[in-house]
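Q: Predict the assembly, please.
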Amino acid sequence: MLEAIGLTKTYDGSVALDDLNLTVRAGEVFCLLGANGAGKTTTINLFLRFIAPTKGTARIAGLDVADHPLETKRHLAYIPEQVTLYRHLTGLENLEYFSVLGGHPDYTEEQLLGFFDQVGLSRDAAGKRVGTYSKGMRQKVGIAIARAKQATALLLDEPTSGLDPKASNEFSELLRFMSVSGVAVLMATHDLFRAKESGTRVGIMKRGRLVTTLDTGDVGHADLEKIYLQHMHD
Amino acid sequence: MTAPLGRMLRHEWRGLVADRTAWLVLGLFGFLVAYAVMNGATWNRTQSRTLDSAAAQADARLAGLRQALDSLPADAPPPGPFGRDPRSPASVGGRDGAQYTVLPPGPLAATAVGQSDLLPQYFQVSMRSRQTFANAQEIENPSNLLEGRFDLAFVIGSLFPLLILALSYNLLSAEREQGTLALVASQPVSLGRHLLAKVLVRGGFITLVAIVVALVSLAAAGVSLTGPGAPARIGLWILVVVSYGALWFAAALAANVVPRSSAANAVLLATVWLAVVVVVPAVLNVVAKTTHPVPSRVELISAMRTASNDASARGAALLAKVYGDHPELAPSESVDAGEFMSRTYAVQDEVDRQIAPVLARFDEQLVRQQQLAERYRFLSPAVVTHAALTDLAGTGAPRYRAWLDQVLGFHQQWQEFFIPRAFRRQWLTPADFDAIPRFRYQAEPDSAVRGRVAVGLLGLAIPTVVLLLLAGNRIRRFEVAG
Ligand SMILES: Nc1ncnc2c1ncn2[C@@H]1O[C@H](COP(=O)(O)OP(=O)(O)OP(=O)(O)O)[C@@H](O)[C@H]1O
Ligand SMILES: [Mg+2]
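A: Predicted assembly structure:
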């Protein structure tokens, strides 16, 4: 579903992402781990075509994102670290508009509110202007937008940063649900616990290189942390 | 299937409604438009009154003289050479029957004062020489935008773009800075379409404000919008406003498709505005005046003085020459009291001939200046727009020049009618009165105005299309995170 082939990005000679080869199949939840500046966001931005690669290709559903920038985004939902919405509109209006853009212009208000129920945002809050929201509430609207899009690939860049533990837990359940529904998920995160909990595979990045990939089923929580720290010390 | 444009427009509309600055900008703009129209209409009313009374006075003069002629007893003594008498060609063709040649205001005169407040809109034409009325009028170049009254043409040409830029300088850059662009750009909708929705809503609204407020204010000021020729001109006026607005939105779009900060966009676009609205017109003006300078007024006056002294000294000889060349002009009865007047005409004729080359150079240089300004007006869309708006208002340079030519033609006719009669001291009869030339302004056909405005519209459309093509091409390489 998500495929990186020799994907490379350099900024004025400094390498942000170095020859990434990665496939995330339908139903997989791939968690990208790595220190600050390791190249996680760069990877996700390349799939979104927010930046152009220096070398290599990124594919979604078999299509090169460079050649099919719009078509590939039909299959794609994205939750950034900071979900920034239209402040003067309500959560509901934001969800409606991004659903229109995302190819679902026909949702009824009840259906839209249903998505808020699923992500745990009260209907009361959904009717308020986003300008008054806390960070976590905005994050939930972002998740609702992603769900409403019914995408087959999900790109997440530290989506749970700022969520309270309960919401974070609900988010893990959402990931499991997505995985069961056959969605390919690529998530950048610093949360080893969540990665082990809800990921099917984890990859550890270091200075733009993907140094290790592991199946989460093969390691325990403690092992994952040990392996991660080992790589960081090298 | 990409997102329906209608829904996108509705979203942008909500955004605009929620934006207080936008309302402030639009409210201010509406006020300026209304104020400018009122200003123009007031000026237009004052001027119309003056022109009407001048025209009426010219008619009344001839009618009065004619009446005096009819009521003259048959045995009245012949008029003296200097006296005021309805039979004397020197009297009627001179001060007493002098005509006002009025340039009537066009149907939309209230929309653009142009230079109608600087340049005389009527002349008093008599058999005396041209210098007594049209003393080498210096028509300012139409590129002098920032001078003149606060009229609608100024608001559209200079302030309208500024407000458009205020609404659109950060169309994309603000979304990039605030972060909403990331979520938008992750959707299957092109940035071009996203921008289009933004521009259509803002552009549509501000243009609508301009048009509606202008038309309502014109109607409120008593300008007929349905009078002869008015609807077509209003249609063209709207087209000019829409095209000019589209060009400025295209400029804002072009600035936004390069990832740059809002502040940098603001500086860039303000610079472009300054160049287009202020600098280029001023430079055009200076270049026109320095490459085709008119002879100095001092030169003109001293030439006139020399010619006049010279001719006066040779008065008797000049008159003899006139009689020699044109024996038919000799008076039938030799009344020597009139000799002095005849000498004056001969002297005037000689002076006119001597300074004709200086005057001709003056005129030629002015025409060259105008031609240069007109040719290079396409360098500044503001000049193109101002020219089109004054043209539609009937206060533009081409109409004024055509009228001036008609006035000079009429002056010649007038002289040709009266001077020979004055030489011959041939008294005017009622039949002569009926044959006195009258000035009738020959309006140019509306098609001529339409043609010129169409060229102007093309001059606005071409840069718009070029900018849009460039922007459309560039936006494909836009990096949302870069
Ligand atoms: N626009 C840019 N210009 C220059 N260098 C950049 C740019 N964007 C990212 N980089 C560099 O690319 C490298 C990878 O950055 P990236 O944002 O992908 O890291 P990350 O793994 O997401 O880090 P974090 O955990 O802090 O989010 C960093 O060294 C960063 O400095
Ligand atoms: Mg990051």
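The pocket of adenosine-5'-triphosphate (ligand 1) is lined by residues A 11, 16, 34, 36-42; B 482 (CB under 6 Å). Chain A touches chain B through 34 residues (CB under 8 Å).
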